[in-house]
Amino acid sequence: MSGRKRTLLKVIILGDSGVGKTSLMNQYVNKKFSNQYKATIGADFLTKEVQVDDRLVTMQLWDTAGQERFQSLGVAFYRGADCCVLVYDVNVNKTFDNLDNWREEFLIQASPSDPENFPFVVLGNKVDVDGGNSRVVSEKKAKAWSASKGNIPYFETSAKEDYNVDAAFQIIAKNALKNETEEEIYLPDTIDVNAQRPQKSSGCEC
Amino acid sequence: MDADIDPSSFDLVVVGTGLPESIIAGAAAQAGKTVLHLDPADNYGSHWATLQLDTFVEWAKRGGATAPLKYGSDGPDSGTNPTQAPTASACPTMESELEVVPLAASAPIFSDFALQVGDAATHLANCVLPPGVEAPKKYGVDLAGPRLALASGAVIDLLIQCGAHNYLEFKAVEGSFTWRNGQLEPVPSSRADVFKSRSLSLVEKRHLTKFFKLVTESNIERDPSDGGDSVSEEDLDMAFGALLTKHNLPPSIRQSLLYSVALLTHDQDSGPAVTAREGLRAITAYLHSVGRFGPGVGAFLYPLYGSGELPQAFCRIAAVKGALYVLRRGVRALLLDKASRRLRGVVTTTGQSLRTSKLVSGPGLLESLPKAETQAESLGTIPLELYNGTTTPSEERFIARFVCITDTPLTPGQSNILVTFPSGSLSMALPAHPVRVFQAGESAAVAPAGRFLVQVSTIGSEGRSAREDLQPVAEALFETRGDADEESGQGEEASNRALEATDEQGASRGTREAGGVGERIEQTGSDTAGNGGRPAEENGSFSSGLGAASPEPNSGPTPSPFNADVPGSGVAAEAGISGTDGQQVRTVDGANSDGAAAQTSEFRKPRLLWCVYFKQRVAAGQELAEGDIYVCGSPDESLTYGHVAEEAETAFKRLFPDLPYYPPQAPEPEEAPDEDEAAE
Known about the structure:
The complex is a heterodimer.
Chain A lengths: L7 E7 L6 H10 L14 E8 L2 E8 L12 H4 L4 E7 L3 H5 L1 H12 L9 E6 L13 H10 L5 E3 L8 H19 L23
Parallel strand pairs in A: 1-3, 1-4, 4-5, 5-6
Antiparallel strand pairs in A: 2-3
Chain B lengths: L11 E4 L3 H12 L4 E5 L10 E2 L1 H9 L30 H4 L2 E5 L7 E8 L2 E3 L18 E2 L6 E2 L3 H9 L7 E3 L2 E6 L2 E4 L4 H6 L5 H17 L14 H4 L3 H7 L4 H11 L14 H14 L10 E4 L5 H12 L3 E4 L3 E7 L5 E6 L4 E3 L3 E3 L9 H5 L21 E10 L10 E5 L13 E6 L11 E8 L6 H12 L7 H21 L3 H6 L2 H10 L15 H6 L19 H8 L6 H13 L14 E11 L3 E3 L4 E3 L10 H14 L25
Parallel strand pairs in B: 1-2, 1-17, 2-13, 10-19, 17-24
Antiparallel strand pairs in B: 3-7, 4-14, 5-6, 5-22, 8-12, 9-12, 10-11, 14-15, 15-16, 18-21, 18-22, 19-20, 20-21, 23-24
């Protein structure tokens, strides 16, 4: 309606602690992976410029900053998200079972205007572990769940091996952009107290 | 999940996620301290929260208390039996040297809830949202409202300094008005405003212009011995109100300056008066805020989605710096060293003992356990006051608050506005002190389209309910009886169009991308880099704005006092879409009241759909237990965040005298620091 081009997309990455949310972000944006697990400290958000069809958009990937550990993400985290990425660990059943809770939590807190069609993407991470032998959640099961929740795109990834990460985030960007054009009517004019957003492109470098 | 917190030792435990607590948590985490941040509620913000309307109603029904915590409901994880009195046995090594001190329940912070739906007073227990108030999740009610940030105020500076501004978006408050003789008069806040004003005589304009010049030139922050100070020492010590009278400012302007510009919270004609020094400082702060974030933007900013976003931004800063966050969990007891009486730890509401030597809490939160819980304690409870409080609680005072929903804006075409009632501006004696009214709508994301959320507060009078204090204000501003249907129908239409207009104006996200505020701030010093095509001097401080003849790109041939003052339209015009917006706003005026809205005398009362009155006790911040514990103050009567920022900084420096408080951020190292031992 306004014809305004909003080129900043907010993407939030949800899932249980330890499923590899920060690693996926880091692999995608910085092409880096650390084998040593640390509960997230120092991760804020990373930004990356992405070409989607003929548009160049800036994708802002928001880390949970560890606040997911005790289910203590505040509503502000969820606000205005253009896409929600749900991550689980294919080697841990419980992380898959909790996807339902994370999705519900997102829909309640972010209360998107069209919850039925809000873009989610599901990532089954850590497919590399033990050559796939320790895997407990089958691709079939995960795909069935994703399909049952309104045909959520599903990807199997390995942040460590950089497997499928780019492909997944390309879809994330594409779907976020699709959502954004539908919702842009109500984006109000805000004062920009925001000095550093453009310079943040290298993110938190950690 | 009531999983135990791991690790079990922290440099600082913070209970409650109100604004001062959150600022302190962020500062400590940024300074490298290990921080655990708890909140018994399942949302952020404590007394500073913004609640959706349905949540707010539930909260009001509970009398403003946190929802009772459920103990041990989550199976094997919960571990401890909560009905047992907490002991130090969870940490055997602590047992011998530590005394467990259960916390006593404190007097509630909130009280005196009264509900009105349409023209009928109703019991809260029967609260049903009336027709016209649908979509409760689209409302955001500030518990500490009305609360606005001064653009050049401490909290905005702090947000920028620590990077928390990245998590927030702000709306400019579009207009500020003073109530006078049943009308809303625009608050003059720049020389241009003074020129435009239709309610001032030429002589009055001259006196006011002179006064503004005096304020900007006297520069109250400078050492008075430097010279150039045109207010004498003697005058600086006199009452501010008397100084204004001395400078020939007529009573109406004097009221406006005292309460709408200097933002004083107490009646200046009875009781203790503010000195001219303080008053001038407050006016300077206001004038510096006008235009800080672009030409046409007024002094006040309001966060999109409500003021409850602020504490969350500081909490995220803390989390990013490693603080651990656990909602739905509080503290039920303290662990004190038997010999020294110093703080050694806390017992959480799940019964877990944690080591810490510093504790910060929101008001009433340490003690917020449900009554039954505290009574079950076999150990005697000790009220916190018994500890060596270094500050004695000041005399008790209350704030009367009022939240309501209307379907028409107070001023045509404006969604987010501030109205100040100077003391004595209503014919009846009450309320005794100035009253603040903040209306916000869909554009601030705190109300659905076509609805407006209005929040009102004043210092409560002794022995009176919030309703008794604020009903005169409600009746002055709103149609409280149900005979306004026809008007409000029109009003709704008008407001929708008004919102469309706002939206068109808002079409300038380009402005946002073109020039960040930070750049603008730097620019006030440098004048070099491009800034969305705006001349740099326009981004300067108030004085430069005054010096240059302020451009009025959208003043049509017959600007109404309202739309000419809409900063939004100024911004839109700057962004190159002038021509349409002024017209649209005028159309709205016409639709609303036969074109007569151009006169201030045509104030039309919006219809009151629903409202709640309540009282909030003002609790001062307190240092306890040899300074190991700091209990933050509750939201106070001020409109802005100045006191909170000050309180948080002072408390932090008392708790951690050797640590820097939000130092400027150095670029982060390439590799994550190795001090994190939370690996699992």
